[in-house]
Design brief:
Chain A is of the alpha/beta class and about 190 residues long. Chain A has helices at about 15-30, 75-85, 105, 115-125, 145-155, 165-175, 175-190; strands at about 5-10, 35-40, 50-55, 70-75, 90-95, 130-135. Classes of the chains: A alpha/beta (about 190), B alpha/beta (about 625).
């Protein structure tokens, strides 16, 4: 593979770090050259968190460039729009969990909340395929990241990475009851 | 689950997906680092996490979080002049705190070797500036290695440690944020535990170690000689990389992460310039560089932050009578921010307009996502305190921020904290603001970790010089912002349970007599305390105490305790919106029709919001459920 760039975005506390490392380890398990980097900083304080992931021999820096991500992964609707408009490459894919954590301006009534239709419309304008994920009966809202992981696996959104690679990655990162619960959810959603 | 500690301690050669910060710890183990010290600060805390992940019974490294970077440097130095290979690590601005001791290190014969790992922060991702610490290392005659990624960080740490031990000197390994946090598969060598010899080898005859007056000169001469020897070593050392291109007229000199950005920017470029990537950026390998300069008509210097290399290259070209055109910083923008691949492509276009194709035009968005500033967590005691303090302050009050989660109080809706320098500045700055100022009250904020780190001298000064301001000590029992490290008042250090050093007792010992203490959730009481304090003369301290709820919630979850159910908005809501516009907990969401709801994934059921609602509309879910039954 030449190069495949992934940009992940969400809100501090949503578990973007686990999702990002699971994707990185899955690609690594599939034998691909992969590097990535999380933005930390003030992340756990409810601000925007992002993570960069780059597959292929032709990628050198761990940082994706704006407007060049072949795949944008978002865990929240406002952040899906941000990821789409600032990072997605034309013809790329956006996969997002349709959760809403209102940003401060929305809560203060200064700006309008982003509606789901706006994300779809912006996808259409950019020729980006939009994949919305929302699982009604999620055992725990903290597993939204694994629901997105399952969607990525089911639709084979990371080229060359198979379902067992994702399972292996989860096994690298989690143990005990947490692993069992997340694998059960992954397996249920991936088939 | 992969066990990081076992990976980092495995005797076999191998590889693993590692963050730069973790890869360093494998290099520490292989190099035989015996003592490591630190003060937590992004981007370096994961180095400590990885050291602490080593199995305790087999951990070859003594580690401590010291009270600040200066103490950490001194502990590492002390261990190193006793014969132990030592390492100290902290963030960029931590070097300012450590500087008084750091600048002496080059003068010392450090028999065990000492590696100083710096986490510089181009882009100011989590710092109050983006200072370029190459300058400080040069000031102190200390060599600087600069890796571009985790694999190089691993390899260069080993080289730096070898050099430090062999030449009995300090060596800096300068990382930047996205080198610390980058992840890739890192290949490492085999390792066998060397026989431990902990003989205390300190001997004044290795020194002298007392650099006073004329004694300084032989020590300074030795430091300069060591530096010259490192420069000589660096000429042939396997740390620099020369990559021939196709356009022999043009060259690029770069180092660190910008090198990887450069490779990305040059992808697919036919007339690729030659690239010289430096692994040691101070002292410079002058012969290598002079040869490179002489071979090219134009050389572009791509270095993040300041023109450190550029100035030395210009001087070198002048000294050697070279006519090479050196292109460095072209305008002020080039001094700002991180050199990402997109930035470096822009730099190349600005320098050599014919080199790269023009960038694809960006499509403007029909709708844009609203900004999402960082904010205090649901249930945070700081929020409760800020809300209460806001009620107490006269409109012309001057408020002074400090470093910590509570710095976020400067953002709306609280807007508390109007000026900030650095860790622990608050008492000094507030004291100055109170001079010739009888009309405007001065109120400062300080966290408990910063209190111990750099807060004490300012407090002693306020007592000693009888200053007139109010200090609110925001005590949450942890070093929250950097990932919940312990601190002297928490009853644990990085290794074990210890006697607490209570903040209040320290204040009493420092001679502070006007001290009050209140749980930050008791808003009415806190408001009254602050109001009264700002209306009387003197130096007043109010401890607003509440445990970090993010830490507590996680601990409770780990212990299997059921979380508190979230609060809910009852029928009494009259849409005064205090919960949103003034209290500002992110759990409160506003519907399109203006109705307030509680986000059940965010609310931790702490109830600190309930007292803010004049209508009494915020209800605990349990009570509501019981009335419904």
């Amino acid at each position: 593979m030449e190069r495949f760039d992934v940009f992940l975005i969400g809100v501090g506390g949503q578990g973007i770090g686990l999702l990002s490392e699971a994707l990185l380890r899955a690609a690594d398990a599939a034998g691909l050259t992969v590097r990535g980097v999380d933005t930390h900083g003030l992340a756990q304080r409810g601000g925007v968190v992002s993570s960069h992931l780059r597959l292929g021999e032709a990628a050198h820096s761990p940082l994706v460039s704006p407007g060049e991500a072949h795949l944008v992964v978002a865990l929240e609707r406002h952040e899906a729009l941000r990821g789409l408009t600032e990072w997605a490459a034309p013809g790329g894919t956006l996969v997002y969990y349709d959760a809403v954590w209102q940003p401060l301006g929305v809560r203060l009534g200064q700006v309008a909340a982003v509606e789901g239709e706006a994300v779809q419309a912006e996808c259409a304008r950019r020729g980006v395929r939009g994949v919305r994920v929302c699982v009604a009966d999620l055992p725990d809202s903290r597993m939204q990241n694994v629901a997105v992981l399952a969607a990525i696996a089911r639709q084979a959104l990371l080229p060359g990475v198979g379902r067992d690679h994702y399972r292996q990655a989860l096994g690298d990162l989690l143990g005990g009851a947490a692993l069992a619960a997340n694998l059960a959810l992954f397996d249920r959603l991936v088939t | 689950m992969k066990n990081l500690g076992e990976v980092l301690l495995s005797s076999a050669a191998g590889s693993e997906v590692l963050m730069g910060n973790s890869a360093l710890v494998r290099a520490m183990v292989e190099s035989g680092v015996r003592v490591a010290t630190a003060y937590p600060g992004s981007p370096t805390p994961e180095i400590a996490d990885a050291i602490l992940a080593l199995p305790a019974d087999r951990n070859p490294i003594y580690f401590e979080y010291s009270t600040n970077e200066k103490v950490a440097t001194e502990v590492a130095f002390g261990a190193a002049v006793n014969g132990h290979l030592a390492c100290v690590f902290f963030k960029s601005v931590g070097l300012n705190v450590a500087a008084d001791s750091f600048v002496q290190l080059g003068l010392m014969e450090i028999i065990g070797g000492l590696v100083i790992v710096l986490g510089d922060d181009p882009g100011a991702n989590s710092s109050q500036n983006e200072q370029d610490n190459r300058h400080l290392a040069r000031l102190a005659y200390i060599p600087v290695f600069e890796p571009a990624g985790p694999q190089e960080a691993y390899a260069q740490f080993k080289l730096a440690a070898h050099l430090a031990r062999e030449r009995r000197m300090p060596v800096v390994l300068r990382l930047t944020t996205h080198v610390c946090h980058a992840k890739e598969r890192v290949h490492f060598d085999a390792w066998s535990r060397p026989p431990v010899d902990d003989t205390p080898r300190f001997d004044p005859r290795h020194g002298p170690y007392i650099p006073l007056t004329t004694e300084v000169f032989p020590l300074k001469r030795r430091a300069l000689e060591k530096l010259a020897a490192v420069a000589q070593w660096s000429e042939q050392a396997p740390v620099h990389r020369l990559e021939p291109g196709r356009d022999r007229r043009r060259g690029v000199i770069t180092a660190g992460l910008p090198y990887l950005s450069l490779l990305d920017a040059l992808a697919g470029v036919a007339a690729r310039p030659d690239v010289l990537k430096l692994g040691v950026v101070f002292p410079l390998p002058k012969e290598l560089l002079a040869t490179f300069l002489a071979e090219h008509e134009e050389v572009k210097v791509i270095e993040e932050l300041d023109d450190f290399l550029e100035q030395q290259l210009a001087a070198l070209a002048h000294e050697r009578g070279l006519s090479t055109r050196i292109r460095g910083k072209l305008d002020l923008d080039d001094w700002l921010g991180e050199y990402t691949p997109a930035r470096v492509a822009g730099l190349l276009r600005k320098t050599w307009p014919d080199l790269l194709p023009p960038p694809a035009p960006a499509l403007l968005a029909a709708v844009t996502a609203p900004a999402r500033p960082a904010q205090l967590c649901p249930g945070c005691g700081h929020r409760s305190a800020f809300h209460a303090i806001q009620q107490a302050l006269a409109p012309d009050t001057i408020t002074v921020a400090d470093i910590g989660c509570h710095t976020l109080g400067f953002l709306p809706p609280y807007r508390l904290g109007q000026v900030l320098l650095c860790m622990g500045h608050v008492s000094g700055t507030a004291a100055g603001l109170s001079l010739f100022n009888a009309s405007r009250p001065v109120v400062g904020f300080l966290g408990d970790s910063t209190f111990f780190h750099a807060g004490l001298p300012g407090i002693v000064n306020a007592v000693y010089n009888r200053h007139n301001f109010t200090l609110v000590l925001m005590e949450n029992g942890t070093t929250a912002m950097t990932g919940h490290q312990e601190l002297p008042s928490s009853g644990r250090n990085a290794r074990e349970a210890v006697e607490k050093i209570p903040v209040r007792q320290v204040l009493a010992g420092l001679g502070v007599t006007d001290v009050a203490e209140v749980d930050a959730y008791q808003q009415a009481k806190l408001t009254e305390l602050v109001r009264a304090a700002t209306q009387r003369e003197g130096f007043k301290v109010i401890i607003a105490k509440h445990p970090c709820m993010l830490k507590l919630t996680r601990e409770n979850r780990r212990k299997g305790r059921k979380p508190q159910p979230p609060v809910r908005i009852g029928d009494k809501c009259t849409r005064q919106l205090t919960c949103i516009t003034e209290f500002g907990c992110p759990s409160f969401q506003r519907d399109a029709d203006g109705r307030i709801t509680v986000h059940t994934d965010l609310c931790i059921g702490d109830g600190s919001c309930r007292q803010t609602c004049a209508a009494g509309a915020i209800e605990p879910t349990r009570a509501a459920a019981s009335t419904e039954q």
